[in-house]
Amino acid sequence: MSYREKIAWLSLIAMAVAYGPYFMFVARGPGPWEPLPHLHPLGLFALVSIVRMLILGAGYLYLRLGSPREERPPLDERDRAIEHRSLSAAYYVLIAGMILVGCFMPFSSTGWTIVNAAIFWIVAAEVVHYSVVVASYRVQASS
Amino acid sequence: MMQGSISNRIRTLRFMNGEMSQAELGQRIGLTRQTIAAIEAGKYSPSLEAAFRIAQVFNVPLGEVFQWDVKATPLKAS
C-alpha cells in the first residue's frame, strides 16, 4: 500500500471516528442545553474537531516515522490524476449539498439544524474525496 | 468508435536492460514505483510524455514499448 493511500485511509478513519458519533448525537435533536442554544453545540463541534486533529496528527507522525523517505516520493502524474478525479467527485457532492442547505432548508429548518446539515455535506464531500482516492489506488494496484 | 486496448512490453524491456527495477525506471522518468507497476499491469495509461520518456530510457521507438491492440468488431448488416 502506497504512502498516499495510507494517508487517505487515515483521513477516512479520523472522519469516521470524529464525525460519526457527532452526527449520531445531533440527529437525536435538541438536548438539555436549550437555555444556552449555541454553547453546547459549539463546544461539541470544537471537541470533535480537536479529536479529529489529534487522530490526524498522531497518524501522520506514525506513518512518517514508519516510512523511509524513498517511500514518500513527490506527487507524480498518476497521483495528480487520482487527486483530480477525487476532487471532482467531491465537488459535485458539496455543490449538491450546499444547494440543498442554502436554497431549500431555510424554508423548513432553522439554526443548528441548518449548520449541522452544512457540516454534514462538507464531511460527506471529504468522505467521497478520500474514498475515491482509496478506490483508485486499490483498482490500480498491481497485486 | 474503434475498440481496443493498450498493451506494453515494459517488463520484457526491463529484463533486457539488466533486470532494471521498477523503482529505478520510475526514478529515471520521474514516476513512482507504484505507477510503473500500474502501467506494466495495464491498469494505468501514462501520459504521452511519460510514454516517450520510458521509450527513451530503453532507447527504442515508442511503438516497441506500447502497442494498440484492436478488438475485432462484428460488421453490421446494412
Structural features, described:
The complex is a heterodimer of chains A (143) and B (78). Chain A is mainly alpha-helical. Helices cover 78% and strands 0% of the residues of chain A. Chain A contains 4 helices and no strands. In chain A, helix 1 runs antiparallel to helix 2, helix 1 packs antiparallel against helix 4 (111-140) and helix 3 (77-104) packs antiparallel against helix 4. Chain A starts with a helix and ends with a helix. The mean pLDDT of chain A is 88. Chain B is an alpha+beta fold. Chain B has a single domain (4-59), classed as 434 Repressor (Amino-terminal Domain) (Orthogonal Bundle), CATH 1.10.260. A two-stranded antiparallel ribbon of chain B has the order 1-2. Chains A and B meet through helix 3 and helix 4 of A and helix 3 of B.
Please state the average pLDDT score of chain A.
Answer: 88
Task: Based on the coordinates given, report the CATH architecture of chain B.
Answer: Orthogonal Bundle
What is the number of helical segments of chain A per DSSP (H or I, 4+ residues)?
A: 4
Shape label of chain A? flat
Query: What's the helical proportion of residues of chain A?
Result: over 70%
SS-based structural class of chain A?
mainly alpha
Number of strands of chain A: 0
Count of structural domains of chain A: 1
Number of domains of chain B: 1
Element-level helix/strand string of chain B: EHHHHHE
Report the CATH topology name of chain B. Answer: 434 Repressor (Amino-terminal Domain)
Strand content of chain A: under 5%
